[in-house]
Amino acid sequence: MPSPSSRHPSRDTQVLVTVNALPLAVGVLLSCSTPLGEISVYGRLTLGITWAFTQLAVLVAGTCWYENRAASSFEPPSATTAASRPAGGAW
Q1: Cα(53)–Cα(55) distance, rounded to whole angstroms?
Q2: Do the Cβ atoms of 44 and 87 come closer than 8 Å?
Q3: Is 82 within 8 Å of 72 (Cβ atoms)?
Q4: Which of 14, 23, 31 is nearest to 59 (CA)?
Q5: What pLDDT, on the 0 to 100 scale, is given for residue 53?
Q6: Which residues contact 9 (CB under 8 A, 6 or more apart)?
Q7: What is the pLDDT of residues 63-84, one digit of tens each?
Q8: What is the pTM of this model?
Q9: Which range scores top for mean pLDDT: 31-35, 49-53, 72-76, 87-91?
């Protein structure tokens, strides 16, 4: 049976999904309008390709951010306290 905390997505998960859903929605709108996606941004670089690269960058950056947050929230406490050392000073 899942724990109560695993049934509801954490705030970090909600942020990750929201940050990636917005560029995805704009990308879907761009894909529905061919003339809009074909607008030249620089030389042969079009708005559609530029947005695809932007969406990829947001996905990679968001995933790295989420991974770092998830890893730091599950790290065990360090064992450097005096109570955790063996008695008598033996290593």
Answers
A1: 5
A2: no
A3: no
A4: 23
A5: 92
A6: 17
A7: 888 888 877 766 565 555 555 5
A8: 0.62
A9: 49-53
